[in-house]
Automatic annotation (TrEMBL):
Protein name per Swiss-Prot or TrEMBL: non-specific serine/threonine protein kinase
Domain Protein kinase per the UniProt entry, residue ranges: 703-1003
Region forming the signal peptide: 1-37
Organism of provenance: Capsella rubella
Subcellular compartments: Cell membrane; Membrane
Keywords: ATP-binding, Cell membrane, Glycoprotein, Kinase, Leucine-rich repeat, Membrane, Nucleotide-binding, Phosphoprotein, Receptor, Repeat, Serine/threonine-protein kinase, Signal, Transferase, Transmembrane, Transmembrane helix
Coiled coil residues, start to end: none
Membrane topology: Single-pass membrane protein; Single-pass type I membrane protein
């Protein structure tokens, strides 16, 4: 009994003691709060205020002794102890640095300094805020690193530090914040790898590292974040395979890992492992393999971005994903260039919330489904560009009334534009470039008053430019070049003040440039080249003060260049190939940004300046203006003199030429006698005394049609017996009315006069004379090649039956021919006294003799590369640019690149691919980004027989012959020759050796290849 009473007394005593201690602690806390309210919090905030250098709206004016602390702007105190528990200064336009004194606000729970201009660093003293739960410092200009002391703030649940300039790495100490629910560090400069301690943040639901410089692999410990809902890792340098840890995060709803360096394949069961996904964005990586079909089973999926990877295969049906809003699959290798590729589009009509559909830049082929007109009325962007899509644009495309971007460019679409396009009133971008669309540019496009970009170039549109385009008052880009448009330029086009880029090049437009062009104050580029425009250049052109590029070449403009001296920002000006006259304005010399000024082939006269930009002959081109004088010596112009000599008469000119010719021949004969050990001069050098216009006219029966065996860029080729040569020859008569014919003649003479190779067509002689009407006459006489051109052997179906070869070329014959061509290119590029670039290699310029030995011909575009900058003639040739033939000319030639042996390497590669696939590079099969190169590359090695010329397979190849291996090796040589980058191309010398090796390996033959 006594013990029981004693026990009860002890319990009562202990209870009283606990109550006393609790009351004492509470009293001490109240005392502490009261004592430090003014002494600590007030002082800390005043110190913080003292570091504020910018308070535009004087929000902190209340922070003084006239107001109690708890009534200061942005300050909230606790109800009981009156200590500062919240400091909320969001968006007050404050500037300065964050004072370390903030660390003395020991009762602080909530701190928001976001959307200001605080700089400096985050003080380490923040680690003293052990009660802090919410930290918002986002949208400032804070630098330095994230203080590791934040790991002491164990109560933190929400940390927002995004949109600053924070650097260094992610502190591993933050792994102790086990109560952290949301962490955003996006848009900073964080570097290094993510620490394994990140996996300790098991309460995390949201985390964002987007747009930093983090690298390395994602740590496997991330798999511990079992509650994570949002994970954003995009815009960094993370690498490795797609992180296996991600597959464990079944609660994920929003996963973004775009624009990193992740590789590998996605697991097929991805959709089963992450069944709650609303948004998946992993574009801009190096992922391969196919799209997991299980993704189409996630019925809640709203956004899917797999764009800009290396994914292949087909696209699953997403018809069971009704809430799908975004489907971004562009810029991959999806599809197979087969006609069933686009079947998935039909299922997308069930996705009634679809806003963005982008499958451009892939390998899809087939007819454009009519069903795209039945896609969601909410669709904002439809991107199918750069595929291999046929058919017509559906008539009901106008049903997509919310469309803002329609991109169908670089396909094979045909037919006219549907008038329902005029119903797309929200459209801001319409890109239909590089198709085969025809008909007129419909006037209803003028209804699209929100249009900012209109790209219709490189089609077959005809008719006139509709004036209704003037209604598109927000238009920035108008590109309608490379069509068949005619008529004049509507003046209303020149009244669209927003225009930045205007291109109508390569049409048949006529008339003059409207004077209203001067109203285009924002115009940066004007390209009207290669039309039939005429008249004088408008004086108002000088008012386009934003102009940087002016391309007006290839028209019929006349008169003087107007005053455009105010266009000081201009970079490129091309007025060549017109009828402009007068003097060259000196103000061009002072255009500091000028990179290119081409005034060639006009009628300019007088003095060429030699100061400023005129000191550089690669910047200023003036050839083809016979009355110019002066300039720097590199231009090779005659000196300016005060009194010009009298014009010589036609008879005087002829007499002078005869005398010079006589002296030249006499000198050559005399030189031959004194150098008997030297090789005989080429027949070209004595050609003028050997053959005349009359001889050729008689031999060809008056250049009759029955003698014609071919035609080229600059002339016609006749077959005839020439008594002087006592053999059948090929006579190439140049069309002297064709611009560039004389240059072609001189180039061919210059190239062939001193070179000899068994695989070069032999130039027997030449004729420089006048015809019976007194016109200049030029002809080249070649050895006749009885088997004609390689082109007719490769494409006999295109040749008249009477001239068609009786059989096809065998595999060995093709290999022999390609070795011959490689051999002669090796000779021209390396073994000549001066390297020669052919510049126009193609099957029609490869001729075959009786035994099908190849002979390369047509050097009308050839260049002696080392004479390039030494002789005026070749300067002028190069200045005109290398054209070559579309499909065979190297890409750099199309951008004004200089002639080089690398251009021949490209042409040789294309020729090789054509020889063994039977496909021309200009075939209708190819278009946009799908080229003969890509067609071949995609097929090697598994599908090489699918792309090989069927006539090879039918030409008696042995059953046991390893044709797949042989063709793969040959085509691989071609692919390496026509790489995009010139310096990466296989040299023809190496190509010749490899092809000879292939021939010896598979045919055990050594066909002679000598120079």
């Amino acid at each position: 009994m006594k013990s029981t009473q004693s026990f009860q007394f002890s319990q009562t005593k202990m209870r009283s003691m606990r109550q006393f201690l609790l009351l004492a602690c509470y009293a001490l806390m109240l005392l502490e709060a009261r004592v430090f309210t003014d002494e600590t919090d007030r002082q800390a905030l005043l110190e913080f205020k003292s570091q504020i250098s910018e308070d535009k709206r004087v929000f902190l004016s209340s922070w003084n002794h006239s107001f109690t602390l708890c009534k200061w702007t942005g300050v909230t105190c606790g109800r009981k102890h009156k200590r500062v528990i919240s400091l909320d200064l969001v968006g007050l336009q404050l500037g300065g640095i964050i004072s370390p004194s903030i660390g003395n606000l020991s009762f602080l729970i909530y701190l928001d300094l976001s959307n200001n201009s605080f700089g400096g660093t985050i003080p380490q003293e923040f680690g003293n805020l052990f009660r802090l739960e919410y930290l918002y410092l986002n949208s400032n200009i804070l630098g330095g690193g994230i203080p590791s002391s934040l790991g002491n703030c164990s109560r933190l649940s929400d940390v927002q530090l995004f949109s600053n300039q924070l650097g260094q790495g992610f502190p591993s100490e933050l792994g102790s914040l086990t109560k952290l629910v949301s962490l955003s560090l996006r848009q900073n400069n964080l570097k290094g790898k993510l620490p394994a301690s990140l996996g300790n943040l098991t309460s995390l639901k949201e985390i964002s590292f987007t747009s930093n410089k983090l690298e390395g692999e994602i740590p496997s410990e991330v798999a511990k974040l079992s509650q994570i809902v949002i994970l954003h890792l995009g815009g960094n340098n993370f690498s490795g395979v797609f992180p296996p840890a991600i597959y464990n995060l079944s609660s994920l709803q929003n996963l973004s890992m775009s624009y990193n360096q992740f590789s590998g394949r996605l697991r097929p069961d991805l959709g089963h492992l992450l069944p709650n996904l609303l948004s998946l964005n992993i574009g801009g990586n190096y992922l391969t393999g196919s799209i997991p079909v299980t993704l189409s089973n996630i019925s809640t999926l709203e956004r899917l971005g797999l764009n800009e990877n290396n994914m292949t295969g087909s696209i699953p049906s997403f018809g069971n994903v009704p809430n799908l809003q975004w489907l971004l699959l562009n810029t991959n290798s999806l599809g197979s260039y087969s006609f069933g590729d686009l079947g998935f589009l039909n299922s997308l009509t069930n996705c009634t919330q679809l806003e963005l559909l982008s499958i451009g830049r892939n390998m899809f082929a087939g007819d454009l489904p009519i069903s795209i007109a039945n896609l969601s009325a909410k669709l904002i962007t439809l991107d199918l560009q750069e595929n291999f899509i046929f058919g017509r644009i559906p008539h009901d495309i106008g049903n997509l009334i919310s469309l803002q971007k329609l991109l169908l460019g670089d396909n094979m679409l045909t037919g006219p534009l549907p008038t329902s396009l005029g119903n797309l009133f929200e459209l801001g971008l319409l890109d239909l470039n590089s198709n085969k669309l025809s008909g007129e540019i419909i006037s209803v496009i003028g209804n699209l008053t929100q249009l900012q970009e209109l790209h219709l170039y490189n089609n077959s549109f005809e008719g006139t430019i509709p004036p209704s385009l003037g209604n598109c008052s927000y238009l920035l880009y108008l590109q309608i070049g490379h069509n068949n448009l005619n008529g004049t330029i509507p003046p209303v086009i020149m009244q669209i003040p927003s225009l930045v880029h205007l291109s109508m090049k390569s049409n048949s437009l006529s008339g003059s440039i409207p004077e209203d062009v001067g109203r285009l104050q924002n115009l940066v580029e004007l390209s009207l080249k290669n039309n039939n425009l005429s008249g004088q250049l408008p004086q108002t052109l000088g008012k386009c003060l934003s102009m940087e590029i002016i391309y007006l070449q290839g028209n019929y403009f006349h008169g003087a260049i107007p005053d455009i001296s105010g266009l000081m920002g201009v970079r490129r000006v091309d007025f060549s190939n017109n009828n402009l006259s007068g003097t060259i304005p000196g103000y061009f010399a002072n255009f500091s940004s000028l990179e290119y000024l081409n005034l060639s082939i006009n009628k300019f006269e007088g003095y060429v300046p030699s100061d400023g930009k005129f000191q550089n002959s690669t910047v200023v081109l003036v050839y083809g203006n016979k009355n110019l004088c002066g300039g720097i010596k590199e231009l090779k112009l005659k000196p300016c003199i005060a009194v010009a000599p009298p014009m010589e008469t036609k008879h005087q000119s002829l007499l002078r030429k005869v005398v010079i010719g006589f002296l030249y021949v006499w000198f050559r004969r005399r030189k031959k006698k004194h150098h008997t050990n030297n090789p005989a001069p080429s027949t070209l050098e004595i050609s003028h005394e050997k053959i005349s216009y009359r001889d050729l006219r008689n031999a060809t029966d008056g250049f009759s049609l029955s003698s014609i065996i071919g035609s080229g860029s600059f002339g016609t080729v006749y077959k005839t017996f020439l008594p002087i040569e006592n053999k059948i020859v090929a006579v190439k008569v140049l069309n002297m009315q064709r611009r560039g014919a004389m240059k072609s003649f001189m180039a061919e003479c210059e190239s062939l006069k001193d070179i000899r190779h068994r695989n070069l067509v032999k130039l027997l002689t030449a004729c420089t004379s006048i015809d019976f009407q007194g016109n200049e006459f030029r002809a080249l006489i070649y050895e006749f090649m009885p088997n004609g051109s390689l082109d007719k052997w490769l494409h006999p179906e295109e040749v008249e039956e009477i001239h068609r070869p009786s059989r096809t070329l065998t595999l060995l014959e093709r290999l022999n021919i390609v070795v011959d061509v490689a051999s002669v290119l090796d000779y021209l590029h390396i073994h000549c006294h001066e390297p020669i670039a052919h510049c126009d290699l193609k099957p029609s310029n490869v001729l075959l003799n009786n035994d099908l030995t190849a002979h390369v011909s047509d050097f009308g575009l050839a260049r002696l590369l080392l004479k390039f900058n030494q002789e005026s003639f070749f300067n002028q040739l190069s200045s005109a640019g290398v054209r070559g033939t579309i499909g065979y000319a190297a890409p750099e030639y199309g951008m004004g690149g200089q002639p080089s042996i690398h251009g021949d390497e490209y042409s040789f590669g294309i020729l090789l691919l054509e020889m063994f696939t039977g496909k021309r590079p200009t075939s209708e099969l190819f278009g946009g980004n799908f080229t003969l190169y890509k067609y071949t590359k995609l097929a090697l090695p598994e599908k090489v027989l699918d792309i090989a010329d069927k006539s090879i397979l039918q030409s008696g190849v042995r059953v046991d012959f390893p044709i797949v291996e042989c063709l793969t090796l040959i085509l691989d040589v071609g692919l390496r020759c026509c790489e995009e980058t010139p310096m990466n191309r296989l040299a023809t010398s190496v190509a010749a050796k490899e092809l000879i090796s292939i021939r010896e390996r598979f045919f055990q033959t050594r066909r002679t290849t000598r120079r």
